[in-house]
Amino acid sequence: MFRNVAELLDMAVNQNKKISEIMIEQEVTVTGRSREEILSQMDRNLTVMEEAVERGIKGVTSHSGLTGGDAVLMQKYIEKGNFLSGEIILDAVSKAVATNEVNAAMGTICATPTAGSAGVVPGTLFAVKKKLHPTREQMIAFLFTAGAFGFVVANNASISGAAGGCQAEVGSAAGMAAAAIVEMAGGTPEQCAEAMAITLKNMLGLVCDPVAGLVEVPCVKRNAMGAANAMVAADMALAGIKSRIPCDEVIDAMFKIGQSMPKSLKETAQGGLAATPTGRALEAKIFGMPLKEK
Amino acid sequence: MKYRSVFDIIGPVMIGPSSSHTAGAARIGRVARSLFGREPKWANISLYGSFAETYKGHGTDVAIVGGLLDFDTDDTRIIDAIKIAEERGMKLRFIEEDAVTDHPNTARIIIGDHNGELELVGISIGGGKIEITELNGFELKLSGNHPAILVVHNDRFGAIASVANTLAKYEINIGHMEVARKDVGKMALMTIEVDQNIDNKLIEELEQLPNILKVTKIVD
Predict the structure, then answer these.
(1) How many CB pairs below 8 A link A and B?
(2) pTM of the model
């Protein structure tokens, strides 16, 4: 079993295998389930992601009314053709938003790695699909590669906003996505790790400050930025740019930053955007009164 | 290693918006239902900490009731669970507790019908994973990181050995086990964490053993 990115890379390089393959083989060993069963479960998760994107692109609204409809706006904007950043990046943004808007509306999603950060990996996957034309098998492999890096973060740092801030949720998701994009685009396992490191470095310190305690504001837009960040970092790694700080050390830094963060900035709705006048006003409107001060 | 499977990272498939407040809550409700063995006629649901403060926005209330109706985390009927439960004649009561608990996401569920009652405390530890910390007054300690089963049994000689033997027959290794009982010769409870996945066939076989009253898988 690999415990960190260095071990994961060793296995991939020495055995001349892709990271997705190392993850699949480990899953077989650990769970005792057959390869076919594991691939087919990931296939089902992929279908759930696909359906969530499709639903969100058509437009949804959450019960609180705080979020919804932004994926539609972005799709319409792309169609007009007057955008400034690249089309694939904006498509990834709209699909990440779509997924997270569906999540906020209590729709069906696949937690990747959590529900609040569920948009980044599918958002980027379905956006790069248009360019790379992957087979279904390659799309499933994308999720195993993302999973391999998420596995390392979960076991060495955290994937929970309450424990480590949003850097642990959207940050982890963005790093996972960047690594998976690199593998799908034909990059090496080392480049996958560079992409993960570059992405995560740029998400460090991100606080978890949900308005009214809901997984809506700023979560939906942070999924958008996580997706954009992943796309750019993947391109940087594919260009041969390296992270000066090794991936495992970045993950360790993320863990320690999470531990140093005050409780008010870790999913308690007591600080950050949640504590702004507008954040408090929205909270009072939704719940009839502000949440208890602690 | 806290996480063992890639599907802890890419998954679970669930109804939004929160893996801890929605998916975890549904799982706590479903364990209660499963241990009760039938659909309860009434449920008193106490919510503590973050559950108490944000349950309406996160759908924690509907998710727990969905679990009581035996819905899985990805069952879209969860959204209408309270309505469905009321249509089926289930009386629901939600209590927002002020007490500070060990874990911020804690729920105490008391369910029952004219034949009996069951009380359970569950916590949602993140990413949809849960732990059951109390059952009918028995304190439980489960990491939630390994597949686990709860075995309610009569406190008689041979009951524990027969369960261990059956697990051995299926080549399943016990990682952690606790036994608790109300009183000598009365109802007792085995909490067993194992290394391998648990097949439904094994659960059925365990239930056939003498003095075993109920076997429930609580972590997959």
Answers:
(1) 154
(2) 0.89
